[in-house]
Every structure is written in C-alpha cells, then in structure tokens.
C-alpha cells in the first residue's frame, strides 16, 4: 500500500530538484525526506529517483508515479473538501499568500466582504512575491495564492492547480520629468532603448514582463538600478537616473515627484493576476468563499 504523504514528498522533490530544498519546503529534515523516498521505493518495488552532484531527478518509473500522484493528491483534496462540507465548514482558517499590490487591490477588499458574508472564516495573509506563492500552495504552506504569470510558472493546464482569473493590468512608462519623451501622450518602448533602466530584481515576475516587452520592442534594456519596491523605482526615475515600467495599480495613490507617467504606445506589457489553489480544494467550504470574494473584489 502506497502512503499518500510519501507521494507528496515525491512531488516536492520533483518540483524542487534537490532533497535539501524539498525538505525545507516541507519543514522536514533532508534525512527524513530521504527515508520516506526509500520507503516509497520499497512500497512500489521500483527505483524512483537518481541522485547526482547537481541534485535529484526522477527515473522513468518515478515519472510514471508522479503522473498518478497529481491525480491522487487532487482527489484527496476533494475528499477533504466534501468532509469539511459534511461537517458544515462554516468556521475555520484559510492561509493566503499574495504580492503586496495584490493585497491592496483585491485581498483586502475580499477580506472586508468576507467579514460580512462569512464571518466564521478567518483568512491569514502572507506577503510573498508573485513567483513564490505558487510553490507555497503546492508545498501546502498556504491554501490560496494570488499570483502573476511569469517565466517558468506552472502553466494554466497544470493539473496540480486550479486557477481563478482575477484581473489584467498594463504597465505604464515612468520617465524623468526632463526626459525627451515626457511630453508625449504615449511612449513607444523603442524610444527608450538607449536609456538606463530601473526595475525589479531578476526572479521577480515583473522583471520578466519588462525584459520580454523590451525584447519584443527590439532591444535589451540596460538595468542599472534594481529594486522590488515600486515606490523606490518611481523615486529613482524622479531623480533622473533612468526610466522604468511599473504596473498601473502600483502607481495608484503614489506621490510621483520629478517624474511623469505615460501609457505605452502599442501593445502595452501586461501583468495577469490570478488566484490558485491545489486542484480539488476549490470546492472546500472554507476556500470556495475566499475565491468567490477575491473574484468579486477584482470586479
């Protein structure tokens, strides 16, 4: 008989590529993860992982079992949801991870709605960058992620996750007040090809959006200044040290001193935001209202 918790460990190892990283995500020791993998191999009668200096990869037998693992764990999530519904599920705690702008734009309004419509549901919110929250859901560190599309993210067809689209927003150009394009109503990105750039660190999903938009405009931006705080990015543009692309919602209510904000001409780079849960959990009587409230808040 294969134990479900060992399947969860197998999936974490496949996701994180090393025993050490999988152990950290699951709050286990590396030796405990290795022991569980060995036990799983004994249960199945197959070698499931291969270790090397570069990490761990699944064997062909491991890949076969992983495909079934995603279906099994999703079904267990559905079973938990039905059991919770059976016992009413009117009160409990849901954990949610979101990037900061998402917290302000949809999470906080959703919590205000839930306080009226489902007062027994307590939502614990954790600030996490858009590329961190999806692994947190898969590793069962949180129940719900408010995340953005980024290179390397689990795709919309990933059977491990169920998504709810929330909103899409354009990035606007932020220029020093004295910039040659500051007087334009709209700014073609190609006009900024020779400027120094300000932007998020590599690994931040917004960094990917900026780099891809510039590549599509025919150039590689020279990123001279980096910050994941959009207030800092705008302040640096206002100081005249570079240009930037910033999500429109991040600019709402922000004091822009010494800089100007202009829409991008043509196809503006866009940030697509969605909520995600482990497949099967979307029907959980605690999680379903949270997803509904997020959708309503996003409009």
Can you offer a commentary on this structure?
This protein is an alpha/beta fold. Helix content is 41%, strand content 23%. Strands 3, 4, 5, 6, 9, 10 and 11 form a 7-stranded mixed beta sheet that branches. A two-stranded antiparallel ribbon has the order 1-2. A two-stranded parallel ribbon has the order 7-8. Helix 2 (19-26) crosses helix 3 (30-44). The N and C termini lie far apart (47 Å).
CATH topology of the largest domain: D-Maltodextrin-Binding Protein, domain 2
Q: What separation lies between the terminal Cα atoms?
A: 47 Å
Low-confidence stretches: none
CATH class wording of the largest domain: Alpha Beta
The class by helix and strand makeup works out as alpha/beta
In short:
The protein has 299 residues and is of the alpha/beta class.
List the helices and strands and how they pair.
Elements: H1 4-16, H2 19-26, H3 30-44, E1 49-52, E2 55-58, H4 60-86, E3 92-98, H5 100-117, E4 121-127, H6 133-138, E5 144-148, E6 161-176, E7 196-199, H7 205-216, E8 222-226, H8 230-238, E9 244-247, H9 248-251, E10 259-262, E11 270-278, H10 287-298
Parallel strand pairs: 3-4, 3-5, 7-8
Antiparallel strand pairs: 1-2, 5-11, 6-9, 6-10, 6-11
Helix pairs in contact: 1-2, 1-3, 1-4, 2-3, 5-10
Features:
alpha/beta; D-Maltodextrin-Binding Protein, domain 2; seven-stranded mixed β-sheet; globular
